[in-house]
Design brief:
Layout (H helix, E strand, L loop, with lengths): L2 E5 L5 H12 L3 E5 L8 H4 L21 E5 L3 H13 L7 E4 L9 H17 L7
Parallel strand pairs: 1-2, 3-4
Antiparallel strand pairs: 1-3
Length: about 130
């Protein structure tokens, strides 16, 4: 089951464009709210074996847009990303695919990992340490 988790995109023109693409590809969408940031990614993606952990987040969170993709084959992922590019949507640097490791993380941990990875990729460094 293909699904995209959307963060910090609610009620934006980009969200509308993404939803058009996702609907045309019959890909499910879930807009994740800050209150859900402590839930496991696997739960948010609807993976079997995951349930609501009963923990609500009441902090500030993060404001950058983030996309988490689940259940995509390589070809389908390429197609989705190509459609985003063809529509000239602004880049969303924080993107991930759900993996056996990160499905157990919450949104805040995944966000921190993606931020560190992005920093390393754009600094020319080989580690996330300064």
């Amino acid at each position: 089951m293909e699904k995209v988790l959307l963060y910090n995109l609610a009620d934006t023109p980009m969200a509308f464009q993404l939803k058009v693409i996702l609907a045309s590809e019959k890909i499910r969408i879930r807009s994740v709210t800050p209150e859900e940031y402590r839930q496991p990614i696997g739960y948010l993606a609807g993976l079997p074996g995951f349930s609501d952990n009963g923990t609500a987040y009441d902090g500030k969170g993060f404001s950058e847009p983030m996309l988490i993709m689940c259940g995509f084959s390589g070809q389908r992922l390429d197609r989705f990303l190509s459609k985003m590019k063809a529509r000239r949507l602004p880049a969303i640097p924080l993107k991930a695919v759900v993996t056996s490791q990160n499905q157990h993380w919450d949104s805040l941990k995944l966000y921190e990992e993606l931020k560190a990875e992005h920093k390393v990729m754009h600094s020319g460094s080989t580690s996330a340490e300064p």
